[in-house]
Design a protein that fits this description.
mainly alpha, Transmembrane protein 97
Length: 65
């Protein structure tokens, strides 16, 4: 259930943030351009350092119930 919600919640994020370079500039709200920069900083400072920790945790703990 959690994984389903996780992946479904990423659809709008992918459309609004990750695909920004593919959307014509006149169709993209300027407010979201500033949001993209905020997300990039968050990913660099929070998400990227967390990946090795999560990878280690998955090798140490079984995630299958």
């Amino acid at each position: 259930m959690f994984l389903r919600a996780f992946f479904l919640s990423h659809i709008p994020v992918t459309l609004m943030v990750d695909l920004q370079p593919l959307i014509p500039e006149h169709l993209y709200p300027s407010e979201l351009k500033n949001l993209l920069q905020s997300f990039v900083f968050c990913e660099a400072l929070v998400q990227l350092p967390f990946f090795p920790i999560a990878a280690y945790a998955f090798t140490r703990v079984s995630c299958v119930h």
